[in-house]
Every structure is written in C-alpha cells, then in structure tokens.
Amino acid sequence: MFERNSQPELTSRQKEILSLLRKGLTNNEICKTLKISANTVKAHLAKIYKILEVTNRTEAVTTKIDEEPNIGDLKKDLNIIFLKQRDLSAHPKVNSLYYSLVEAIHQYRIFRITDTVEDSVEPAFSIDVSASTDNDEALFLSIRLGSSHEMLWATSIKIDSDNISEIAQKAAMLLFRNIVLATDKINYTPESPIPYWWYITAHCNLKFESRSKDAFNYCKDLLSPLATGEVYSEHAVYTLSLVYYIAILDNWGDTEEYTKQLAEFARKTMFNAPYSIYSQMIMAFYNIIIGNKSEAISYFKQVIEANPQTITARTILAQIYMLTGLNDKALELIEECERLIPENAMQTSIKHGKAFLLLLQGKYEECIKLCSQILLYTPKATIHHLFIIYCNNQLGRKAESEAQIKELYKQHPDFGRPYVEQIMKGVCPEMQKKFMDHLQNLFV
Predict the structure, then answer these.
(1) In terms of Cα–Cα distance, which of 53, 66, 67, 7 is closest to 221?
(2) Angle CA 327–333–335, to nearest 5
(3) Contact 224, 240 (CB under 8 A)
(4) Which CA distances in Å does 265 have to 15, 32, 228, 425?
(5) Pairing assessment for the beta strands 138-145 and 151-158 based on DSSP bridges
(6) pLDDT, tens only, 251-265
C-alpha cells in the first residue's frame, strides 16, 4: 500500500515556493510570480521551515525532500508478463480468449507486455494463465508480484458464449481493476519493479472514488509533482485532469483557476501526444467544462473505439448524451456498461449515469432512492443533491425538498446559481429550462 509518512508533508503550493527559493527568487519576486501577498509567502515559508526542520532559507533550499520522485522513474515502463502454465492448444476457445485478452490489455496503452522471461527486465506483475481441466471451457488467471510466488489475486473466466471479444473485454476490465487494487496493497520501495508513477496513480484512483474535497486535495498534492514538470507521466497528467474535472463539477474551489489548469494539461498533452487516448480524454474533460459537449462526445467516441475497456469514457459519455437530449443513445450505452463492466470495476460511475436516466424518464422515486444510496458514500456529490431536490419538487414534496436544500448548503456553503449554470453549458435549451424551472427554490 502507498502510505504517506506520519511527518507533515509540503503541500503543492509549498513545494512550488520551495522550487522558486531554489532558483534564487526573493520573497518579493515570489509574490509577483505566484500573485500572492508578502504575508502569505512568509506564512508558507514558516510552515516549510517547520516541516523540513530548518531555521532559514539557505538550509531549506539544500534540504532534500524524500518524496520527490526520481525523474527517470517517470519514464520507467510498467512491465507485465503473461505466463502459460500449460499449453492451451487443446482448448481452442480458451486459447482464443487468451490472445483476445492480451490484445485488450494492450489497448490501455500503459503496460509493456511480454510472454517471455527477460533476464534484464523484472516484471511488475506476472499474470499466470491456464485452462480448465474439466469439461467447462474457462480461462484461469492469477496475478503475482514481480517474479515472486506471492499471489495477489486469482479468478476464472468462463466462456459462456461465442462472443470471445466481449468476454475478453470484460476479463480485461476485471484484470486491470485488480492490478490497481493489488498495487494499492503493496508497500512502495525505490527498488520495486513497479514504477512510482503507477503506485501514485493507482492509489489516487482508488482514493478519489470517495469523491470528496479532502480526497481532491490529497490526490492533487500527490499527483502534481508527477504531472506538472517538463518531464512528466502521461498517466499522472490524465489522473490529475480527472481529479480537477470532478472538482469543477462538484464546486470544490476556484472553478476559473481549475479550468485554467485543465486547459494547461490539455495543451501539454495534445502538443506531445495528440493521438493518445489519455490526451483525448483530457480534451473531452476540458470541452465539457467550457460547454462544448458535442466536441467532448467526439473525443469520447474516439477513445472508446481505441480502447473499448475505458470505463470512465463510457460512463461520462452516457451522461453527456442525456444532457444533450440523446436519451436513446444514453440508455443503450448504460445497458452496455451494465452488461460489460465487472461488478467491482467502477460500478459507482454507472450508478451516477443511471440516476440521471431515471430522472429523465420521470421515475422520481427510483431516482431519489438511488441518489440517496450514492450520497451515503459520496455525501458531497453536488449533482445528486440537485437530482433529489428536482425529483421532490416534481412530486410536490416541499418539506423533503427544503431539507435536501439545507443539506446541500451545509456540504457546499458557497453554492449558488453560477454552479448550476456551469453544468448546464452545452445542454439543449429545452432541458436547461426544464431543469432550472424545477430548481427555483434553491435560490430563494
């Protein structure tokens, strides 16, 4: 498991100030560079000195921060090796599924995959594969750490139809999810064959499933050093962009500043790797935020075509279809998600889309029930508070609506009309009017 030291750590802003100190900037120059006051700089410096256990700027700039990532590690491959435990040729369907699974895993564009042991390369994970020994057609999979015998996860994939490609997609999603879960349980060491950037992105993906402001700040601090330098991890930039995207949607801070940061990530990745699925995902996030949902749809469709296992693209695209009035396409995509995506692989995202679909279908009781379940583990998810208020207003339940409004403002004291207008950008006019008409009591 990736664990942070019990000793306090520098925030991303404090690291930024320390970096400027190391470049020789004075306090006044730091003020101008970061557009903050002299008192703010002094306060940050005092905290930096305390955390680093130093007494002045000279000692601070010469103190090494243990958690600064090794730049070389940012380009380190995430190696996995598939190892057949026995010949699969006697099981044609299992053999076909195995090769289709390898193809599907390649489509994530994260792993360096081989099926041959290389003396010079220590794999991060070994994937053992074998066929069922009884009459059932099934592919057995297990994950081991590196070249060790330590098994982290195992399952069997039953071949219950002739649609090998679809079974492989489901198996790839399941395998990918469990590689992420396995990574989060392992203690990181610099000698590990697993790259630091993968530890951090895997850890943050799981941490951020709580969808809270605290998780946003935590993940932002961990990911920023890997995503904002001249040398960076593409996957860290993508993960941080997703974190900012959700923060904007859920109104967790300075929307204008976060949008600028998202724009910078889009610029950086599109200049360096315009055809990468992760660059295209970032462009989709950015276009949603600026209200260009039709362009976002185009990017998401490209991503899904390149990697059908991309759960985030599928679930957000379904929501965008609904916002733009393409309900039939949304329903088709949600049903496809429910059929394809394994139970432990981001079912939360599917529930978000399904709640919106229930609202549009006028199934208000079901929508309220589902949103209430979602809010149990993501109480700050603004959009689901809005869904419950909308549904209660439609049902004429004034008291329940007022109670939910009170809870919304408790979770988000700065909430206001601009937030609703922000998420309505690019939405068809008919839906905008309908949504706003039934949320008027929010702003009384």
Answers:
(1) 67
(2) 100
(3) yes
(4) 19, 23, 8, 21
(5) antiparallel
(6) 788 889 999 999 999
Using only the alpha carbons of the chain, give its radius of gyration: 24
In contact, 155 and 139? CB cutoff 8 Å: no
DSSP annotation of 70 reads P
Is the distance from CB of 233 to CB of 278 less than 8 angstroms? no
User: Each residue of 208-237: pLDDT tens digit?
Assistant: 887 788 889 889 988 998 998 888 999 999
**108, 116, 181, 110: which is closest to 143 by C-alpha?**
181
Angle of helix 327-340 relative to helix 311-323, nearest 10 degrees, comes to 160
Report yes or no: 42 and 50 within 8 Å, Cβ to Cβ: no
Nearest to 233 by CA among 198, 188, 282, 181: 198
Query: 159-179: per-residue pLDDT in tens?
Result: 988 999 999 999 999 999 999
Q: How confident is the model at residue 8 (pLDDT cuts 50, 70, 90)?
A: low
Q: Could you give all domains of the chain from N- to C-terminal order, each with its CATH number? A: 12-61 (1.10.10.10), 76-171 (3.40.50.11830), 198-443 (1.25.40.10)
